[in-house]
Structure to design on (230 residues):
């Protein structure tokens, strides 16, 4: 009732994989950003990180690239966690700046939720990550979700969606404030845009869906769900 925030929900399109390969359990970049935000509010809020369309977005430092993650030595592990904290602070600081600039408050809130599943034919030659079991299947299900809060649409997709699909959704959505949360309610692997099928990208190699289905299915499905809300 005092008007003080109790939680900060933020969304950013980057893999939380700075310390991947160090052999240590960690909340990684996302956890570091959440800790920073909570500390800046004197631990009076809960910070909630959601991953945006990060299928083709890795951390600037880390993420399996050259540097400390490729060596097993203790000093290299420490450097990886230093990089995690630094990038988490950069993201967290921007979250705090934006949160503190929000002036348009309301106590009148309408919420609606929806979900659906679309099915896309699978493509051959998928090389998934080592921790993902492969099975022969004629089609792959993609879960779509929507939480609409007034004029804000939080959309969810059950895979690691690349940036171009999100830009397509933003352009087609009837709501300016349309946000995409990925790896929501499942993880089917990468989901590449149709144009990417002409290029030998890592994300395409790890995408189970055949060309011509996922991009339009996601965009058209979510836009229709948004249009049917309220």
């Amino acid at each position: 009732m005092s008007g003080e925030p109790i939680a900060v929900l933020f969304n950013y399109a980057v893999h939380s994989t700075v310390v991947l390969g160090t052999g240590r359990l960690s909340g990684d970049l996302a956890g570091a950003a959440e800790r920073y935000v909570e500390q800046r509010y004197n631990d009076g809020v809960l910070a909630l990180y959601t991953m945006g369309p990060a299928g083709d977005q890795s951390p600037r430092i880390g993420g399996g690239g050259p540097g400390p993650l490729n060596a097993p030595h203790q000093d290299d592990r420490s450097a990886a966690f230093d990089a995690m904290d630094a990038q988490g602070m950069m993201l967290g600081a921007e979250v705090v700046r934006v949160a503190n600039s929000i002036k348009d408050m309301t106590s009148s809130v309408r919420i609606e939720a929806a979900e659906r599943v679309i099915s896309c034919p699978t493509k051959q030659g998928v090389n998934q990550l080592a921790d993902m079991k492969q099975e022969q299947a004629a089609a792959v299900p993609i879960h779509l979700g929507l939480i609409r809060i007034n004029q804000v649409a939080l959309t969810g997709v059950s895979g690691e969606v690349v940036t171009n699909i999100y830009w397509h959704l933003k352009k087609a959505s009837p709501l300016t404030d349309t946000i995409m949360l990925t790896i929501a309610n499942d993880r089917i692997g990468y989901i590449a845009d149709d144009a990417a099928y002409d290029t030998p990208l890592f994300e395409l190699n790890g995408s189970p869906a055949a060309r011509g289905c996922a991009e339009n299915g996601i965009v058209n499905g979510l836009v229709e769900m948004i249009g049917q809300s309220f």
About this structure: The chain is about 30% helix and 20% strand.
